[in-house]
Design brief:
Strand content of chain A: under 5%
Structural class of chain B: alpha/beta
Distance between the termini of chain B: 60 Å
Shape of chain B: globular
CATH topology of chain A: ABC transporter involved in vitamin B12 uptake, BtuC
Largest sheet of chain B: 6 strands, mixed
Strand order of the largest sheet of chain B: 6-7-8-3-9-10
Helix content of chain A: over 70%
CATH superfamily of the largest domain in chain B: P-loop containing nucleotide triphosphate hydrolases
Structural class of chain A: mainly alpha
Number of helices of chain B: 17
Number of domains of chain A: 1
CATH topology of the largest domain in chain B: Rossmann fold
Strand content of chain B: 15-25%
CATH class of chain A: Mainly Alpha
Number of helices of chain A: 14
Radius of gyration of chain A: 19 Å
Radius of gyration of chain B: 25 Å
CATH architecture of chain A: Orthogonal Bundle
Oligomer: heterodimer
Shape of chain A: globular
CATH class of the largest domain in chain B: Alpha Beta
Number of strands of chain B: 21
């Protein structure tokens, strides 16, 4: 059963990891996007619809990324160009996405698709314990293994990453070297939305293999909180996402093994975990927060 | 234009071509003529001191040279060729580098990452290779900096060295230093001037913007004085001018020296402010004030010196009860009159931007003249006029909202309101920030009047000369500790500087 829970943690944590990595990029650039949940919903429906129409789940991933990017682009227009309040814009876009996906998703409820299936890695999946936990999953899970270190490398070892981090730390420093803060933030926010969209698509075309209203069920909000726990570090996002994945998979594993626990109580576990982590860490993680992001939280302080 | 150029070339026979030549530059912002017919010539291998009061047009001139503003009229030449930089990037391509007063480094990044931002060089950062280049350059220029250190953890002096190094590594031949010494300890100023001298010896041009006349005399080969946007004085070898002459050029009239009657500190009565082991957290949650013991007695002006961010702000806030102590005690002996305060950042802590000057005059906790249930505004206006007259800092018209005022004018409103009251404790952080020479002088007189009246005055300043001129004792802070209290009589700038840097006097 431990192996089942851990394998479930990896599978269930993957969507949160994509969304968390995306939000990390966005927030490193100075834009907080509470619409991540909405981008995931759009990604889930977009991915499901494209897969249903084309029969190709890889095109579905692309569709999910585009759908998520579109929502984040709207966010970027509002908060970067129009300088709207980032919290208000993000939340509004979440509710918009919730309604839009419910409306346009009706036709896809209970429709069958050619979903991703687990692809055991030859050889590695045979390892006792580790094999089923890590190497008997759908391709998006494997892609996520690579995505976290690659995004870390891009953020901390390339010029593009340096520009993103500078946009989140001190905009004057970017401007004085002739770069456009707006352009950098647009790119970071849209890239973040695309990753959240892929996370959403993972839920619908690899994890649940179905579409239903509000199927993301708070994973996007968990991802936003996770970015803070992970102190804006992609590698820590990876670890944190699997922790929340474990909390999520607990319910289904317990159910299949016949232990009677209240379903609703189990669904609350990830959120209780979120609250516990928030309470334990308190304001400590904020020491690692990008400076421009702190200005978003509190306009009067510009430490 | 051709004949003009020929004439200039003739005029320079035998002299090296000017690195930068500015001719008849003018710039107007609405009603304000910020620069008018300004000439400036910087030769290679020289240091050019640029002095002037706040609002004299120094920063407008620099921003035109650095491509931030486009001049309305006039021309600029680099190495004799006409140029018109349209952006800072253009200016840098011409070899003009600027070290901003507020330093444009990113605190969360390392020195190497900050320099990488300025040196476009491939899509990946290759930090190890860059670190080697930085080390090489830092040795060549005598600017010791650790490339892998996070800027957040560097002292102000180290940050400045990193920024200068960054400017040099981008190929600057003309380095503009905008008020580089205002936040440094005396030893750091000496080290900086060592670097400046080295740049000069290597044939670079340096423009040093400052308001400290001694510095201009010490290091500059040429001096230009701006007042009201115009060049008032341009001369070689500023060492030939006295302080009084340079001040007169800056201000437009003679300013008599500050008269300080040094009454012996009265017998130590009960202190008005008594800190015992005061420890407090800063805004980021770190310990910013560490076990400070300090007394301020009635009739005493205690100055606080220290490199920026050494705990001065927290000290003031703790003294005023605005910041809780985590251990130790704070006692204020309120024998009537209470405390008045000029905060470090009045815009953040003392001002409501949307309210008028007049409305601010009733925000000081004193009884307000009433009419029925409301405020008797005509009476407030009359009271304010008397106050403004008595304080003598000439506030902006009382109908103006604070958000429409410049930093210096906001400072005058805050100073008038606070220093116009008779309090038993006066806490003033950087009271002369943003003020011109005359108002700075007046503010110092006001603080001395409070002291003579028997109030205890605690005054933070980054200008050691100012503290030595007005304070009875100077408390020196370093990294949250109060590292020493020096009697001003016979105080020595260098030993205070050593304390500021954490050493022993």
């Amino acid at each position: 059963m431990i192996i089942d829970i851990l394998a479930g943690a990896v599978r269930g944590g993957t969507s949160i990891m994509y969304a968390g990595l995306g939000e990390t990029i966005s927030e490193r650039g100075g834009v907080i996007n509470l619409g991540t949940e909405g981008a995931m919903l759009l990604g889930a429906l977009g991915g499901y619809a494209v897969t249903a129409e084309t029969g190709n789940p890889w095109l579905g991933v692309l569709g999910g990324a585009l759908a998520g990017a579109l929502l984040s682009l709207t966010h970027a227009v509002l908060v970067v160009s129009r300088r709207a309040n980032q919290f208000a814009s993000g939340l509004t876009l979440y509710f918009l996405a919730l309604g839009v996906t419910a409306l346009f998703g009706v036709g896809y409820v209970s429709r069958q698709i050619n979903a991703f299936t687990p692809v055991p890695v030859p050889g590695l999946s045979e390892i006792p314990g580790l094999g089923p936990i890590l190497f008997d999953h759908d391709p998006l899970v494997y892609l996520a293994y690579v995505a976290a270190p690659v995004i870390w490398w891009v953020l901390f070892r390339t010029r593009v990453g340096l520009l993103v981090r500078t946009a989140g730390e001190r905009t004057e420093a970017l401007e004085v070297h002739g770069y456009s803060v707006k352009a950098v933030r647009y790119c970071a926010t849209v890239a973040g939305g695309a990753l959240a969209g892929i996370g959403g698509a993972h839920i619908s075309i690899a994890y649940a293999n179905s579409w239903f209203e509000n199927m993301i069920a708070g994973r996007g909000f968990i991802a936003v909180a996770l970015v803070i726990f992970a102190m804006w570090n992609p590698i820590r996002i990876m670890a944190g996402a699997y922790l929340f994945g474990a909390a999520l998979s607990l319910a289904s594993v317990l159910q299949t093994s016949g232990i009677a626990v209240n379903q609703f109580a189990l669904n609350a576990v990830p959120f209780v975990l979120t609250l516990v982590v928030l309470a334990v860490l308190g304001r400590r993680t904020m020491l690692a927060a990008p400076d421009e992001l702190l200005k978003v939280f509190d306009n009067s302080r510009t430490t | 234009m051709t004949t003009d150029a020929v004439a200039r070339a003739r005029g320079r026979v035998g002299k090296p071509a000017a690195l930068l030549e500015v001719r008849s530059l003018s710039k107007r912002f609405g009603e304000v003529q910020a620069n008018w017919d300004v000439d400036l010539t910087v030769l290679p291998g020289t240091v050019h001191g640029l002095i002037g009061e706040n609002g004299a047009g120094k920063s407008t001139l620099l921003k035109m040279i650095y491509g931030v503003y486009t001049p309305d009229e006039g021309r600029m030449f680099v190495d004799g060729a006409p140029v018109s930089p349209g952006s800072p990037a253009d200016a840098r391509a011409l070899g003009i580098g600027m070290v901003f007063q507020d330093l444009r480094l990113v605190p969360a990044l390392t020195v190497a990452e900050n320099i990488a931002l300025a040196l476009p060089d491939g899509p990946t950062l290759r930090l190890a290779r860059l670190a080697a280049r930085i080390t090489e350059a830092s040795e060549a220029y005598g600017l010791a900096v650790d490339p892998s250190a996070q800027v957040r953890h560097l002292s102000i002096g180290e940050r400045q060295r990193a920024e200068i190094l960054k400017v040099l590594m981008t190929g600057a031949r003309l380095v503009i230093l905008d008020e580089p010494t205002s936040v440094l300890a005396p030893q750091e100023v000496e080290a900086l001037f060592g670097v400046v001298a080295q740049l000069r010896d290597r044939g670079l041009g340096v423009v040093l913007v400052t308001h400290k006349l001694g510095e201009v005399r010490a290091i500059a080969d040429q001096v230009t004085v701006l007042r009201g946007g115009q060049v008032i004085l341009n001369a070689e070898d500023p060492g030939n001018f006295s302080d009084a002459e340079l001040v007169e050029a800056m201000v437009g009239r003679r300013v008599p020296p500050l008269a300080v009657e040094r009454v012996a500190v009265p017998p130590r009565e009960r202190a008005v402010l008594e800190l015992r082991g005061a420890t407090a957290l800063g805004d980021r949650g770190h310990v910013a004030l560490k076990g400070v013991d300090l007394d301020v007695h009635p009739g005493e002006l205690v100055g606080v010196a220290g490199v920026a961010g050494s705990g001065q702000k927290e000290l003031c806030e703790v003294a005023l009860g605005l910041r809780p102590v985590t251990s130790g005690s704070v006692r204020v002996d309120d024998t009537g009159g209470g405390a008045v305060a000029v905060p470090e950042d009045p815009v953040a802590d003392s001002v409501v931007p949307g309210l008028t000057v007049l409305e601010h005059m009733v925000l000081d906790g004193r009884a307000v003249p009433r009419r029925g249930l409301g405020i008797d505004w005509p009476a407030v206006g009359a009271r304010t006029a008397v106050l403004d007259e008595r304080v003598g800092l000439h506030m902006a018209p009382t109908k103006r909202t604070l958000s429409s005022l410049s930093g210096g004018n906001i400072q005058r409103v805050v100073l008038t309101r606070e220093l116009g009251q008779d309090a038993s404790l006066v806490v003033a952080a950087y009271p002369s920030r943003g003020l011109d020479v005359a108002n700075t002088r007046r503010t110092q007189e006001l603080l001395l009047q409070h002291r003579a009246r028997g109030a205890g005055v605690l005054m933070v300043s980054e200008d050691l000369d100012e503290l030595i001129a007005v304070a009875d004792r100077i408390a020196v802070m370093h990294d949250g500790h109060l590292v020493g209290v020096v009697d001003t009589a016979g105080a020595d700038r260098m030993s205070i500087g050593r304390l500021m840097l954490g050493g022993v006097a």
